[in-house]
Amino acid sequence: MMRICLHGPESTGKSTLATRLAAHFGCEVVPEYGRAYCETHGTDIDMAALVHIAERQQAMNAAAVLRATDSGTKRVLFDTDPLLTAVWADMMFGQKAQYARDPWFAGFNGYADHYLLLDIDLPFIDDGLRVYRKADDRRHFFELAKAELDARGVAYSLIQGIGDARFANALAAIDDRCAVRC
After folding, report:
1. CA-to-CA distance for 6 and 57, rounded, in angstroms?
2. Can you give the three-state secondary structure of the chain, one letter per residue?
3. Is residue 42 left, alpha or beta, with left meaning phi > 0 and alpha meaning psi from -120 to 50?
4. For residues 37 and 49, what is the distance between their CA atoms, to the nearest angstrom?
5. Which of 88, 98, 108, 111 has the largest count of CB atoms under 10 Å?
6. How far apart are CA 180 and CA 105, in angstroms?
7. Which residues in 95-117 are b (16+ Cβ under 10 Å) and which e?
8. pLDDT along the chain (182 residues), means of 10
């Protein structure tokens, strides 16, 4: 069974791509808990809320892996995981000593088998919850997301393109990875 996680800044099509991939593979996609949290509580959150979001996301992801294992499903998709929540912590609080990343993030090691890092080549769409619309902020967010994957040494593929091209690139990356791992 292969665990695939979508990773990258907001407004890069993660949820749309995850849903489309899940339909293609006939597997479950675990939604982004942070979105649901922010819909209820707003986007003015602190480090404790980020840890809560990461813990809840990981619990949801782990439960989906158990369901997939029990059903014999070959893949499970995560719309996100705690690695991206750690990047959110860096984006929101930067290097401010009083807001340094909670140690929980450093201890996280429940990585997916493969990450799809979505590029910022899509136009920003404001949905009322998104924060980083400026091109410089989006580029910084992307670089932090990539750096997180590199620092953790996890396998990932950069996914670019619009519409069907993005989907085809994601499928090719998964197929390439599966040829090595599956």
Report:
1. 13
2. CEEEEEECCCCCCHHHHHHHHHHHHCCCEECCHHHHHHHHHCCCCCHHHHHHHHHHHHHHHHHHHHHHHHHCCCEEEECCCHHHHHHHHHHHHCCCHHHCCCHHHHHCCCCCCEEEEECCCCCCCCCCCCCCCCHHHHHHHHHHHHHHHHHHCCCEEEECCCCHHHHHHHHHHHHHHHHHHC
3. left
4. 9
5. 88
6. 29
7. eeeeeebeebbeebeebbbbbbb
8. 94 92 96 91 89 97 96 95 93 69 92 97 70 82 95 97 95 84 56
Give CA–CA dist 150/156, Å, rounded.
Answer: 9
Which of the following CATH numbers is that of domain 2-181: 1.10.10.10, 3.30.565.10, 3.10.310.10, 3.40.50.300?
3.40.50.300
